[in-house]
Design a protein that fits this description.
Layout (H helix, E strand, L loop, with lengths): L1 E5 L7 H10 L3 E4 L4 H10 L5 E3 L13 E6 L2 E6 L12 H9 L4 E3 L7 E5 L2 E5 L11 E6 L5 E6 L1
Parallel strand pairs: 1-2, 2-3, 5-6, 6-8
Antiparallel strand pairs: 1-9, 4-5, 7-8, 9-10
Length: 155
C-alpha cells in the first residue's frame, strides 16, 4: 500500500496534485493548513480514500484534530502537530499519543521542516510544507504486507 502525505499547503495545491498524479498512491493524507486544500484532492481524485486533520490555520475547521488511519496492517496516528509542541523540537508527547493509539507511525506537519526518524519504536514523519518555502516537499509511505514501512521525503 502506498500513501501520499501532504501538509501546510497554504492554498498552493498545484504541486500536491501533480505529485499524486505521478506517484499514483492508494490513499491520501493531508495534515492541515489549509483544510480546504484537501478538497482539491477530493475533487481531483474522488476514487482515493482521503484522511485529513485540522491545522492551526484552520480556525473554523470541521475536520478532527487527530485521527488514527489504517495503512494495511499498520496504524498511523495523524495530527497537524501544533497541540503537541512539535515546533519546539519536542516529539515525546506526539510519540506517546501514537503509542497510546497502538500506531507504528506518527505523522505531523506544522514546522514546515521535513523529518523522518524512529523514536520509541514509532516511525515519526513530517512531510514538510507542500505549499510554502524554497523547496516544497511531501512524503510517500509504503507499507508492506508483513508490516514493514518505507518512508521517502520527496521534493
Amino acid at each position: 500500500m502506498k500513501a501520499a502525505v501532504f501538509s501546510d499547503t497554504h492554498g498552493n495545491t498545484a504541486l500536491m496534485l501533480e505529485a499524486v498524479r505521478r506517484s499514483r498512491p492508494d490513499l491520501l493524507i493531508h495534515l492541515g493548513d489549509y483544510e480546504r486544500d484537501a478538497e482539491a484532492l477530493r475533487r481531483e481524485f474522488p476514487q482515493l480514500p482521503l484522511y485529513q486533520v485540522r491545522g492551526n490555520c484552520d480556525l473554523a475547521g470541521l475536520c478532527p484534530l487527530t485521527d488514527t488511519v489504517p495503512l494495511g496492517p499498520v496504524k498511523a496516528f495523524i495530527t497537524h502537530g501544533h497541540l503537541y509542541n512539535v515546533n519546539w523540537g519536542r516529539l515525546d508527547s506526539l510519540v506517546y499519543a501514537a503509542q497510546e493509539q497502538g500506531a507504528k507511525l506518527a505523522l505531523f506537519g506544522h514546522t514546515h521542516q521535513a523529518l523522518y526518524e524512529e523514536i520509541g519504536g514509532v516511525q515519526v514523519l513530517n512531510p514538510g510544507s507542500a505549499g510554502k518555502g524554497r523547496t516544497p516537499s511531501w512524503a510517500l509511505i509504503q507499507v508492506f504486507d508483513n508490516g514493514g514501512i518505507a518512508c521517502e521525503i520527496r521534493t
